[in-house]
Design goal:
Strand content: 15-25%
Oligomer: single chain
Number of strands: 4
Radius of gyration: 15 Å
Shape: globular
Number of helices: 4
Length: 155
């Protein structure tokens, strides 16, 4: 796909993205903003996997890690770095770093990823064909070694 903008290309600044998040939180409330941004991220993740031709191809979690890392990381949109995707029973865990949502946050923040979590959520649902419920369960900003998203089967 060609760049969406002739001169500036497809990338934008984290500062502008964070302004969208904070502005949405201030205008409609933190909970509503989180729901909206997560839903937008899910849509983006699903569309990304469809565009890559990988719908339903996610049984191999090592391959999914490589593919999503390329699409969302330094060689892709730069949304985040996907470090690992693994399963513990029916639950999927995705370890990420340098998320756009947490960029610039102070240590101990109560912020959780919204758009980034949603994008990974939508991508995993499209890759696996499973309905999932995602939660940001660990964060480097909360004293953990990395950010971790947990995805449980949605009934």
């Amino acid at each position: 796909m060609a760049d969406l903008r002739e001169d500036l290309g497809d990338m934008s600044s984290i500062v502008c993205f964070k302004s969208i998040v904070i502005g949405a939180e201030e205008s409609i409330g933190k909970a509503a903003a989180t729901v909206a941004l997560t839903a937008a991220g899910r849509k983006r993740g699903k569309n990304l996997v469809k565009a890559m031709g990988l719908s339903g191809a996610g049984a191999d979690l090592q391959a999914a890690t490589t593919q999503l890392s390329a699409a969302l990381g330094v060689d892709g949109t730069r949304l985040c770095k996907i470090l690992d995707i693994h399963a513990e029973g029916e639950v999927l865990y995705v370890t990420v770093s340098e998320t756009v949502c947490m960029a610039g946050e102070p240590q101990g923040t109560d912020r959780k990823c919204s758009f980034t979590l949603g994008a990974v959520h939508g991508a995993l649902e499209e890759l696996t064909g499973r309905k999932l419920k995602g939660t940001h369960v660990r964060s480097a900003w909360w004293g953990d070694p990395a950010d971790v998203f947990e995805f449980k089967p949605r009934i």
